[in-house]
Amino acid sequence: GDSVTQKEGLVTLTEGLPVMLNCTYQTIYSNAFLFWYVHYLNESPRLLLKSSTDNKRTEHQGFHATLHKSSSSFHLQKSSAQLSDSALYYCAPAHTGNYKYVFGAGTRLKVIA
Amino acid sequence: GPKVLQIPSHQIIDMGQMVTLNCDPVSNHLYFYWYKQILGQQMEFLVNFYNGKVMEKSKLFKDQFSVERPDGSYFTLKIQPTALEDSAVYFCASSLRLGVEQYFGPGTRLTVL
Prior knowledge:
The complex is a heterodimer of chains A (113) and B (113). Chain A has no helices and eleven strands. Chain A is mostly beta strands. In chain A, strand 5 and strand 6 form a beta hairpin. The N and C termini of chain A lie far apart (41 Å). With 113 residues, chain B is mostly beta strands. Chain B contains no helices and eleven strands. Chain B has strands at residues 5-7, 10-13, 19-24, 31-37, 43-50, 53-57, 65-68, 75-79, 88-95, 103-104, 108-112. Chain B starts with a strand and ends with a strand. The A-B interface holds A 32-33, 35, 37, 39, 42-47, 50, 90, 94-106 and B 4, 33, 35, 42-45, 48, 50, 55-56, 58, 91, 93, 97-107.
């Protein structure tokens, strides 16, 4: 089945520094979607951005990611971290033929002043 | 955006009792999910429910667990009997179809004593 690796459990950054959260995945589906969900404390997890197009940058709310099928990666980036970015970030693949969603272990981003 | 509601937000129950967690999914969505998150750990897939049937379940979805959505009402997760290891936050989610964005509820924190 699908699997996701988010190798950093916790990333602590000073405000203003660039953010990069790693995601690598395995899926048998060549046209799977990759998602980043963000989970703020005491809120519902929600979609941050998604992509199924190889080598195309997708952006939302200051974050961006590029799906690289050759390396099975979908790293999340932001040029300048803000205090309000502190949250748990999950990477997840999905496909129209797969009933089971597999989330990565999540990366907790902590932005400090 | 569309909202998923979960009732109750907190539930404390004695081991061995039955508990029902309720989810009000997005109105036109067809796929429904439960996830379990133990404190400090990742969110893990429990079950996918579609058209009145369990389509996929994980190893975490024990025999004591059941799901249903009678006549378009709440989508429920029932645990009978509960065990100490069932203590967790349970998130409900729904999606219009497979492979697309899931919308999550705020979670129900279940404490089994």
